[in-house]
Structure formats: C-alpha cells, structure tokens
Amino acid sequence: MCNLYSNTTAVEAMRQLFKVQPLQDRLGNAEPLSAIYPKYDAPVVRLDEDGARELVSLSWGFRSTKKSKKTGNIISPSVWNNARSDKVATSGFWKFAFKDRRCLVPASSYCEWPPGGNPQVFHWFALHGDEPRPPFAFAGLWQTSKYETKDGPESCETHTFLTTTGNALTETVHPERMPVILRPEHYDQWLHGSTDDALALLEPFSAEEMLIVRKGTEHGSDAIEPSA
Question: Which residues of 8-43 are buried (b: 16+ CB within 10 A; e: fewer)?
Fold first, then answer.
C-alpha cells in the first residue's frame, strides 16, 4: 500500500510526456511536489468530454462516508488512496471508475516502509533513466467523491491508483504490494481500452528497471539527488 509519492516534473515536461495540448493544461503555475500525501492535490492526466487528454489537479484518495463504531455518529470520511488490481473490476466501490474513469497519475518516485519497523525506515523507489528520478505514471482512477460529514454532504474531485503484487526489488521492503506503473506505450490502452485491455496491464513493473534512490527515517525527505 502506497501512502506517499512525489512528482517533481515541470508542467511543460508533463505536457510533452503525456501528450497534453497547452489549452488542455488546467494546472497553471503548479510547483514540483516532493511529497504527496493522501488528501493532497496532485496532477492527473484524464480524458475530457471530447476524449482529449487534460492535465488537472485532483485530491489523492477516493472518499466515502465513515461512522464511529462506538457512537454511530458521522466522523471524518474514509480516504481510499489505493485500489487493489484483483478487486478493481468486481468491487462495487471501484468497478464503475475502472470502466469509465481511468487516468494517469504522474510521479517521479514513491515511498514504502517495512511493516512493523521501529524506527520506520522509508524507502523511495524510482526508475532507472538518463536523469535522476525520470517521470513515469501510475495506473489511476478518478471520480467525484460524494460523502457525508458531521457538517453535512460534501463532494470532491479525487484520484487513486492501482496496486499489484510486488517485484523482486519492492518485496525487499514491502512484501505484498506495489503501485502499477505503466509504460508510455501503454498509456492509450489504459485510457481508451476495454476493461479487459486495462486488466492486462495490471502487472508488476520490472525490478531491473527500478532502484531505491533514498532511504532514511525522515519520510518527507524526498531529495532530488539519489543517495549513495
């Protein structure tokens, strides 16, 4: 389960990488994000009503109403920042977004930590490339989340991304799951393909093409330079 990632790619570079026309860029002067947590806004590439790619900023994590088990009162909403690949096509919570609202979630690295560690050691994963932490995309979903709060109904445009089984590298830190990372040649298949086309992409990324670029006890220390 991933609860922290970064996207330090400049907006113009994202437009080029994800083939978004300038007029479809809704980000404005967005700053690089060295640490993105659940409920933070972050860039997403989705299809507009005409089927063109657009860059927008959405809050990370689908929301749902949550009630206290003790009192039954409505409390802060649940935040679902990951969707499991083995449930996304069948779960009532995910399947409609999986069918109709798939998106790309730009990133430059993501963070995991071993379960039960004390102190926690945070590991930042990135891709090999000609530059430190080259940009990539998670397989994502988006929706307008509608939910109840103690102050009444609320709604929010949100995104999440898929997780799958880990590869040989990620399993050394988190033994169960890793985010689904898409290759550029598969972006169209993810955005436009059928559910079967999309399911075919929900596989672990190659461990040989990934590396741990930083690790330490400070989870927000996503520096640009890889550690030794």
Answer: bbebeebbebbebeeebbebeebeebebbbeeebbb
pTM: 0.93
DSSP 8-state symbol, 30: P
- Which residue range forms the structural domain that includes residue 41? 5-109+130-210
Over residues 23-50, the pLDDT tens digits come to: 999 998 889 999 999 999 999 999 999 9
Q: Which two tokens stand for residue 173?
A: 């830190």
Whether residue 142 is contained in a domain is answered as: yes
Within-domain flag for 40? yes
Please check whether residue 36 lies inside any domain of the structure: yes
Task: Render pLDDT for 82-125 as a digit per residue (tens, 0 to 9).
Answer: 999 999 999 999 999 999 999 999 999 999 998 876 678 899 99
CB 96 within 8 A of CB 83: no
Give the number of domains in the chain: 1
